[in-house]
Amino acid sequence: MWVGSWRPHKARGPIAAFYNSPGPKYALPGATGPGYLVQPNITRTGKDGTPIYSLYGRPKDLNLFRTPGPGQYSPEKSGKSAHYSAPAYSLSARSKGFRNDHTPGPAAYILPSVLGPRTVNKTSAPNFILTGRSKIGSFHEDLQKTPGPGTYRVIDPCAYKYKPPHYSMTGRNSMPGDTTRKPGPGAHSPERVTIASGKAPVYSFGIRHSEYMAPLIVDVLD
């Protein structure tokens, strides 16, 4: 359902909003650089060094300092810090730290023994201890437990001498050969090769894709 007298129709002529502009051919020059905005106090020898003075008012204090007068002091309350006074004594309760007596009692000490060979302040007689006979060097020593030549670890002579070249031989795991797939005669198309032989010119028909070509208007409304 259409509203009003407007109906869809083809445009009578090209509309510029439907196409892109090629853009300007020449770029516009830029603005003036800093060389044209030279300050007036800059000379060829540098900045002008003429002294400049300015007047400024003294700032006001935010909080005025109020000096205390004679009535602000109370010398009678100074006490012993400013006047001589007689010694004074006071009685107070015993502090809590002295209630628990941490002095060790008699059972806390371990006195050295007064009997036996380990007496500290007495001379003791020589003591003798009997132990078992060692099997090393005795008549019942088992000589079969003597280590043989294979018990010792011999160091490789290459560690302290020149090392000769070493070679190793391993088994072959797979047979040598090429396992790639070779193309047969039917896999080639020599008639399509145009690099090594001449080729006749080929023509094709297409359409223009220019964005600036006006569309062909066949039906024009009167």
UniProtKB/TrEMBL annotation:
Q: Which PANTHER family match?
A: BOREALIN N-TERMINAL DOMAIN-CONTAINING PROTEIN-RELATED (PTHR21580:SF28), SHIPPO-1-RELATED (PTHR21580)
Region (Disordered) location: 167-193
InterPro entries on file: CIMAP (IPR051291), SHIPPO-rpt (IPR010736)
The scientific name of the source species is Acipenser ruthenus
What Pfam families does UniProt report for this protein, alphabetically?
Answer: SHIPPO-rpt
Example GO CC term: the record gives:
cytoskeleton
Name of this chain's protein: Outer dense fiber protein 3
So which residues are the signal peptide here? none
